[in-house]
Amino acid sequence: MNELSSIAAAMPGVLHGSGGAPGIVSGPAFVHAPRAFATAATGDVAAALGLLSRTQHDVAARLQQRAATLREQAQAREAAIFDAHGALVHDAALTGRVERYLIGGVSLPLAIDAAVAEMTALLESLGDEHLRERAADVRAIGEMLRGALNGGARWVDAVPPGAIVIAHDLTPADTFDLRAVGAAGFATAYGGPNGHTAILARSLGLAAVVGVGAALLTLADDTPLLLDGAARTLWVTPSAATLEEAGRRQKLLRARQDAPRDAAPGKMRDGHEVALRANIGRPEEAEAARAAGAMGVGLFRSEFLFFDRPAPPGEEEQRAAYSAALRACAPHPVVIRTLDVGGDKPLPYLPTPAEPNPVLGTRGLRLCMRHPALFRTQLRALLRAALDGELWVMLPMVSSIEDVAWGRGELQAAAAALAEEGVPHRADVRLGITIETPAAAAIADLLAREAHFFSIGSNDLAQYALAADRSDGLLAASYPAASPAVLRLIAQAAAAARAAGIPVALCGELACDPAVAPALVGLGVGELSMSAGLIEPIRARLAELTLEEAEAIGRSLAQLSDR
Amino acid sequence: MPEAIFTISHPSGLHLRPANMVYQLAQQFQSAVLLTNLDRQPSPEVDARGSLFDIISLGVSSGHRVRVRTEGADAEAALEAIRALVETNFGE
């Protein structure tokens, strides 16, 4: 960046992003320039192991000091806990797992996280109260090691409360941590509206603007900022008048989003009810969804458990993750979508052939057909977790009756195997499908006989129906998802579901657009699922209308003639 | 190979502190100290010298029976040391 552009960016101005997470916040900039873990770079396993060993030594030494202090105070029992923690820091089970991840090409901090996650999942899977506490011990050791890496704290610990973080992009872990340290919000130069970071920020209720562009990175620390996530806008050195106006909108927003709410369906003016559920990617988000008043989870993207690691999660680890989400939401349902990856969302350990059209290639259920063992492990974990709540299993990327039949066959086989082995599980879970291909919408009446529920994935349905890449901003603007073609497919699928007496939900971005959500309800969609932070605005919008008015909006947007 | 079965009577089972005592004790011998939880299926057999975490992950709750097998030059002494530890209820 040259001098001129940095002066320009320091001047009062307005920056716009491509997406965001709602919330209005103001505060000083905290610029995060990514610092690579120089000695822990991916690939240099020996150097990373050396750093791990020194870090283990440092952490264990500090624990020994604490133990010694306690012994001086005649508190031998408490000291013994620190002794045990000191042994765990050096434990071969931890070191061995970290090493395995390092060899798999994962950086040291991530390798520690992954090893700790594996170990805690193992302990939690044993279903014993005391062992769950041991899992907390292991987690604490992971945190101590990560904190001591690079000779100090995590970078997020340096973020002052109330600051707005400016970064190239953020990892999901950083996003979690930012909320914990009390950051007011964040803005990123890169990343899109449907990236993990934006999705997580919405779930966590952290205000954000993403995809602002490289100009963002010229900002200096402590520059006064105002951020409006819903408007995808960042004001640099805002005027007093701008701040005052923002303060007023912020108060209005807060008034609607104060204390935790009871889970309740959305109610229209005439009393018609619409179930509002949350989209999540990690089990931890289920708690936030519940606090936001969600009637359970309408879409748990299970693939989030499979990203950023060298090997797929095992049956125990998956079971623990699904159980946690189910327990957090019970008695409301949690719709868990089975692994939905492919050429456009590749996993390092699942080699996918180069495909000329990845979104038309081996993805979703099709990929699982190529890797039945991986799919079977997930189904076993799901059926075992089903004991802990109301599980609905959803198959993605269905375009034929044969697809559903294969999925059901696999589920039944998994249940039969568990029964044979005497492993506790529930076989009577609901099995539904995503309606995201035009093919599925076209034969919705036939699929409705095979599925227990439909969930319309409007992002992919729009992309496939309009033959327009949704990551291409220009095309997306020319062919919006809320077009008559897409809305008519949605209406057709909803009508088929209603005729068959099965629930029909919609879990795409359309559900959280206040201008479109009423139209979806009017066209027959019974349940809407969205990021937890967006439930309240939609609830408020639905409350303003009767079902009849919503039907009129639906017919109008779909350009259907009046009956 | 010397072998014995002990019932763990501590109300918290083989929790963090006693597990660490077994781990530290095992370090003092050349012999492998192999533990299996007979009351949890399936249960692996772990070498108590190798890893405290492995001992914890046996998931030994109060009333569970643990089989101890020792193998090596000082196998008898190792087994007797473990027996003494269990019989004094880990010093509690």
Describe the fold and architecture.
The complex is a heterodimer of chains A (563) and B (92). In chain A, 47% of the residues lie in helices and 14% in strands. Chain A has 22 helices and 17 strands. Chain A has helices at residues 3-10, 45-72, 76-89, 92-103, 108-124, 129-148, 172-180, 196-204, 240-256, 285-291, 315-329, 365-370, 372-385, 401-421, 438-442, 444-450, 458-466, 473-478, 484-500, 517-522, 535-543, 547-557; strands spanning 13-16, 19-21, 24-32, 164-167, 185-188, 207-210, 224-228, 233-236, 266-267, 273-280, 297-301, 333-337, 390-395, 430-435, 454-456, 504-506, 527-530. In chain A, the strands form two sheets. Chain A has an eight-stranded mixed sheet. In chain A, helix 2 runs antiparallel to helix 3 (76-89), helix 7 (172-180) runs parallel beside helix 8 (196-204) and helix 16 (444-450) packs parallel to helix 19 (484-500). The longest helix of chain A has 28 residues, at 45-72. Chain A is globular and about 85 Å long. The N and C termini of chain A lie far apart (60 Å). The relative contact order of chain A is 0.10. Helices cover 33% and strands 23% of the residues of chain B. Chain B contains three helices and four strands, in the order βαββαβα. In chain B, strands 1-4-2-3 form a four-stranded antiparallel sheet, with helices on one face. Chain B is globular and about 35 Å long. The model of chain B has no long low-confidence stretch (mean pLDDT 90).
